[in-house]
Amino acid sequence: MSVLRPQDQLPGLNAATILLVGTDDALLQQLADSMLKEDCASMLKVHLAQSLPLPSNVNRPRIDLIVFVVNLHSKYSLQNVEESLHHVDATFFLGKVGFLATGAGQDNHCSIHRNTVLRLAYTYRSPLFFCDLEVEGFRATMAQRLVRMLQMCAGHVPGVSALNLLSLMRSSENPFLEDV
Question: Residue 83 burial by CB count (10 A; 0-12/13-18/19+): exposed, middle or buried?
Fold first, then answer.
């Protein structure tokens, strides 16, 4: 079993790489395309994977940020993310992992309750974003946020590290999350 570690590769000079993991290829590709349209001082690389582990024979750059995408309309999507999490080294959870729940705009069609995803993010002490990726304007805004977060995780924002980012996001977290 191959475990993905943040220090598997040396960092690229002025390069930032994000790995989007999820079962909906079309939505992941649309999000990746939106991210690549963003103005970014770093050389932005977006990799897509349906699940982890990644094939071990692939030559890939260092991954600075992993975002697990859960479609709230698919229990398989949640199960896939939960299984993939076992292939991520614990040190990634020091600010280099995030969760993105999509499909929340159509609550009546959701097969996964929002609290389930909240608990997942809370368990892994990682940020959670809600965004309906099917809506172009929301997708563009999320792409912008992820690019900024990626730049911080890659160390391209002076004075801010992935751990700083994580602590900043924690301070705005719901204090009653333990009751979820």
Answer: exposed
Q: Give the torsion sign (CA, 144, 149, 150, 151).
A: positive
pLDDT digits (tens, 9 = 90+) for 86-119: 999 999 998 999 999 999 776 677 899 999 999 9
User: Which DSSP category does 88 fall into?
Assistant: B
* CA-based radius of gyration for the chain: 15
User: What pTM did the predictor assign?
Assistant: 0.89
Residue 171: what pLDDT?
47
Q: Distance (Å, rounded) from C-alpha 180 to C-alpha 178?
A: 6
Rounded CA gap, 174 and 159, in Å?
Answer: 26
Nearest CA to 88 among 18, 2, 178?
2
